[in-house]
Amino acid sequence: MKVCIIAIGQKMPAWAQTAFEDYAKRMPPEWKFECKALKAEARGSTSTAKIMQAEAERISQAIHSLGKEVFVIALDERGKAASTQALAQLVAEKQSAGCHLAFLIGGADGLDPSLKQNAHALMRLSDLTLPHAMARVLLTEQLYRAWSLSAKHPYHRE
Fold first, then answer.
1. Distances (CA, A) of 107 to 10, 54, 99
2. Domains of the chain
3. CA distances from 158 to 27, 86, 144, 152, 155 (A)
4. Which pTM value belongs to this model?
5. How far is Cα 125 from Cα 113, in angstroms, rounded to an integer?
6. For the segment 35-55, what is each residue's pLDDT rounded down to a tens digit?
7. How far apart are CA 136 and CA 139, in angstroms?
């Protein structure tokens, strides 16, 4: 199973890159975990709608590159809150079904509405507004925690 974070924005602060890499290297090899950091569209050159559409095209191409059976989860502030246990259950179900997982993180203006409409689920990481780098780190940690919970690894404690 592939587990992929598809995020707009290629430059993360050093602290965020270090934290992301720490959790990413812990992922189980059967997950084939990766983060596809895509170029953000230049701001100010055109309308926000056109910027979001251009970013949506890049994200859609990245989703299609994962294969046929991809369960897409768009991260959005209006998405459903999920517990670690619920995330672990979702990941386990999709792994059993032979699906790949794609988690989408939009650019500075968020995700294009078409991506949110076509996603299988909308999820929010927090009621707080998070910087994109923090969202990427937090999501990666929660995916590792979800795996550890399913694998009965001692990392997760109730």
1. 10, 11, 26
2. 3-150 (3.40.1280.10)
3. 20, 14, 15, 12, 10
4. 0.93
5. 18
6. 999 999 888 778 999 999 999
7. 5
